[in-house]
Amino acid sequence: MIPDLGKYGDAVLSAYGVSVVMLLVLVGLSIRASVKSKRMLDIEEQKVRNNGR
Predict the structure, then answer these.
(1) 5 and 12 Cβ atoms separated by less than 8 Å
(2) How many angstroms separate the CA atoms of 16 and 9, rounded?
(3) Which tens digits make up the pLDDT trace of 28-37?
(4) Neighbouring C-alpha atoms within 13 Å toward the C-beta of 9
(5) Using an 8 Å Cβ cutoff, are 13 and 5 in contact?
(6) Which residues of 6-34 are buried (b: 16+ CB within 10 A; e: fewer)?
(7) Which of 9, 10, 35, 48 could form a disulfide with 5 if both were Cys (CB 3.0 to 4.6 A apart)?
(8) Which three-class secondary structure string do you get for 8-49?
């Protein structure tokens, strides 16, 4: 089902590959930042609870 890209096939497919890898890296970094932020928020909420506020 791959279209005939002629002499540009390698360039187009490698560009698609690089794009997919970059998207996966961005999603991974976003998830990692979200987890870190959640963890820090939980720590701050615990501090507030322990101070009796």
Answers:
(1) yes
(2) 11
(3) 999 999 999 9
(4) 6
(5) yes
(6) eeeeeeeeeeeeeeeeeeeeeeeeeeeee
(7) 9
(8) HHHHHHHHHHHHHHHHHHHHHHHHHHHHHHHHHHHHHHHHHH
Q: Where do we find the tokens 């998207």?
A: 23
**Residue whose token pair is 């999603």:** 27
Residue type, 46: Q
As given in the structure block, the two tokens for residue 46 are 């615990």
